[in-house]
Every structure is written in structure tokens, then in C-alpha cells.
Design goal:
By secondary structure, this protein is of the alpha+beta class. The chain has helices at residues 27-37, 80-94, 177-180, 184-192, 232-245, 294-299, 312-321, and strands at residues 2-8, 11-17, 50-55, 62-70, 75-76, 98-102, 107-117, 120-127, 150-151, 160-165, 169-174, 204-212, 215-222, 226-228, 256-260, 263-272, 275-283, 285-291, 306-309. Bound molecules: ligand LBFN2T5F.
């Protein structure tokens, strides 16, 4: 059995293709596997942010199904960076360049794109459905049905927030460089992802600096994970928030470059039939192939694994070294 270690903008995952197993892992086994394999101490290759589970899809138009298990064992409805890597995996498995992938709430369109740089494969993935209402995100006790560019001192004094489900839940604030690189992200992220009266299911928290027209730098504290190098749905939700709250800086229908601590993606925000949706384009990098016996996978025994590097990480690092650096953390 082969696992893959992959990343999109250094948002790290293991891909587990359940269709290759004689006996598929149960949901309970997936939870304990995710908790162990993603940990920097008990996991493989310094862990990851989550596990992407590939299954056959029963939907007629989808080439496969992706489930997203966060590092803490919770299941997310979507993962934008992860979907790019699953899109590449299915594209190579079935030799198709454009298709749909079933996710928890929707079948999403994906397509192979030109390499971002030499040896840096790239995919575009649809981010939708987009929702704004309290019940769809969800949040409570904030005195709003929708949160779009509102000061909410209960969440953090002096910052304006926007909250969007894509369909996993996001909270976004546009801030200056000092704030984006400060420990405020951790303070808000930890408060809203532990027992709290506002985001009672947790929320992905994104702080964004507007660098220029159609150019952002975004840091994310992820629900079920913590600090991450990048969050694809977060950067997509933040690009939509930019178009809504700062239309002079973010244009619908035009690629927005979103820099993050792990690299850069491009997000195009669309508005059709009274619905928003986004295209997220970025790398889909496979760093390592991991051979593990199926029985060892069930028993969570990583002691006999064989790891083979793909060599793609060097290409990715060269690509990142040529990007402008807005990080300065
Ligand atoms: N990293 C992801 C989002 C993963 C899910 C998130 N932790 C949640 O629980 O909503 C991305 O790239 O979108």
C-alpha cells in the first residue's frame, strides 16, 4: 500500500487511497490514524495538517471522492489546497485533465493547468458553495445575521471582520503588516477554536494584508489544526471578502495573487446567477511516496515504512525563492 505526502503552498497532507485497500479503514480508524500520522512526534515525515481520503464516488459525474480529516480527527467539509493535490492524484490515476471531485457538500470542478515553474505541477479547483448566513457558518451571540466588514469587539477590539462559509467556516480581517505578523492571529484562533459562545463549531481565522490592487498576504489559524503555512479555502474566502469590502483593491473576474507563508496561489472571484464562487490555482506537489503494509496501517505501526522522495520539493523551493517575500515573520 502506498501513501503520498503532498502539499499545496506547504499546507501538508497525506493522501490515503482507500480504493487500494483490501479492507478499508473505518471512520473510527481514520480518526486515530489522522491524529497519529499528522503529529510531528508520532507521525511520518514530521507530520502534516491532515489526511485526504480518496474513495470511489457514487456520483455519476465525479471521478472520485475526497474526504478531509483534520489533524485533531475532526472532518472538514472542504480543503482547497488539499483538493488540488487530490485532483492531481486522480488526474494521474485515470489519465484525465478535467473532471469533478465529490466533496462533503458539493461536486467540484478541477482542471490541470500549466506548471507554475519547472517541475511545479499546478491545478485549478472550484471553491463553492459560498454562504454568508449565521446558520450556515455557524456563529451565535454576536448580534448579527451576517458579518461583513463589522467591528466585533467580542472577537477582537479594533478589528473589522467578515465571515464566510466556502462551505467550511472562515473569519477574515484586513489588517496592516504589523498586525498580520503579530501574535493576534494565534490569540483569536485559539479563543474561537476552544470552548466559546461565538463560533461553537470552531472557525478558520484569516488575517490579511492588502499589498496592492489584486494582491494579498494571508496568514491562517485553522480549525482542527492550528497555525498552517496556507489555507486554500481561507485564501479564497479572503479574496471574496476583499472584492466585497474593498472593491477598489479586489476585482471580480481578475486573478488575485495571494501570498502566504508557504508560497502563492491565484484566486479569481466569480459572480454568476446571484452566487459567488472562486477558482483557486496553485501548486500540487508530491514530496514523498510511503510504502506501508495494509495491516501496519490498520495497526498504526509506522516502524517498517519505506520512504522514497520524489525530488519535487527542490523545484517547489526554487519557485518560492523567486517570489517576493511578504512574510517577514
Ligand atoms: N487547509 C484547508 C482547510 C482545511 C479544513 C479546515 N481545517 C476546517 O476544518 O475547515 C484548505 O486548504 O482549505
Amino acid at each position: 500500500m502506498q501513501l503520498l505526502k503532498v502539499h499545496g503552498s506547504q499546507n501538508q497532507f497525506f493522501i490515503l487511497d482507500q480504493t487500494k485497500l483490501q479492507n478499508q479503514l473505518t471512520d473510527e480508524e481514520l480518526v486515530v490514524l489522522a491524529k497519529k500520522i499528522t503529529s510531528p512526534t508520532t507521525g511520518i515525515l514530521n507530520g502534516s495538517d491532515g489526511v485526504l481520503v480518496v474513495n470511489n464516488s457514487k456520483q455519476p459525474n465525479a471521478l472520485g471522492q475526497m474526504r478531509v480529516i483534520n489533524a485533531d480527527g475532526s472532518e472538514a467539509s472542504m480543503c482547497g489546497n488539499g483538493l488540488r493535490t487530490v485532483a492531481r492524484y486522480l488526474s494521474e490515476k485515470y489519465n484525465q485533465d478535467e473532471f469533478e471531485v465529490e466533496t462533503l457538500n458539493a461536486n467540484l470542478h478541477v482542471s490541470k493547468q500549466a506548471d507554475l515553474a519547472k517541475g511545479v505541477p499546478s491545478f485549478a479547483v472550484e471553491i463553492s458553495p459560498v454562504k454568508f448566513d449565521q446558520k450556515d457558518i455557524p456563529f451565535a451571540n454576536l448580534g448579527h445575521q451576517r458579518i461583513i466588514d463589522q467591528f466585533i469587539p467580542e472577537l477582537y477590539p479594533g478589528l473589522k471582520f467578515t465571515s464566510i462559509a466556502v462551505p467550511n467556516p472562515h473569519l477574515i480581517s484586513f489588517v496592516n503588516h504589523e498586525v498580520v505578523t503579530s501574535d493576534i492571529l494565534g490569540a483569536i484562533g485559539k479563543a474561537l477554536n476552544s470552548d466559546n459562545p461565538y463560533y461553537y463549531d470552531g472557525v478558520n481565522v484569516n488575517l490579511a494584508q492588502i499589498i496592492d490592487k489584486n494582491r494579498l498576504f494571508v496568514r491562517t489559524f485553522e480549525r482542527g489544526v492550528g497555525f498552517t503555512n496556507a489555507c486554500g479555502t481561507g485564501m479564497s474566502a479572503t479574496s471574496l471578502a476583499l472584492c466585497l469590502t474593498h472593491p477598489e483593491m479586489g476585482e471580480l473576474g481578475t486573478p488575485i495573487e495571494v501570498y502566504n507563508p508557504g508560497g502563492m496561489v491565484k484566486v479569481t472571484v466569480h459572480y454568476d446567477h446571484q452566487q459567488y464562487w472562486m477558482d483557486l490555482i496553485g501548486n500540487a506537489t508530491f514530496t514523498d511516496k510511503i510504502e506501508i503494509d495494509e495491516s501496519d496501517l490498520h495497526n498504526l505501526d509506522f516502524s517498517k515504512i519505506k520512504v522514497e522522495s520524489t525530488g519535487e520539493q527542490n523545484n517547489y523551493e526554487k519557485f518560492v525563492s523567486e517570489l517576493p517575500n511578504y512574510n517577514n515573520l
